[in-house]
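Give me structure tokens for this 164-residue protein.
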Amino acid sequence: MTTHTFRNIAALALASLLAACSTTSPDVISRNDAQRMSTVVDATVLSTRPVVVEGSQSGIGGTAGAVVGGVAGSSVGGRREGVAVGVIGAVAGAVIGNAIERNTTREEAVEIMLQLKSGERRAVVQARGNEQFTPGEAVIIVTTGGKVRVTRAPGAPGAPVKTP
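Here you go.
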């Protein structure tokens, strides 16, 4: 296997690993939240605005990048050069891996300002899902395991209709 082929495979593996990271999408429910009782609160949308949820840096990207860079660099030249280039490759790989992780876990999101029936106001940030919200629209706030998501209220215009 050539160094070029190895690098391509390693980059693809790293990208696949990072693509599997978690999301804040309201359309994706965690396995841990399935079959759990949720609290539901009625609300009205006051406003929405687009926001970006910053990407995470868990260290997985940096570690994977360091390993890939170190292995790829150590295969260059003789023994002495291989060690030096391997160290440089590990450092460069860690920096690149962190940047890839940060960029692949970044999400386009929406901040939804809500008015509860009690008069209290709340704001929820969630990744853009299949629903778009407009001011005055009836919604529900669903809280499960400390996580919150906003969805259209059942029976509201545009809400999914349950069919038998």
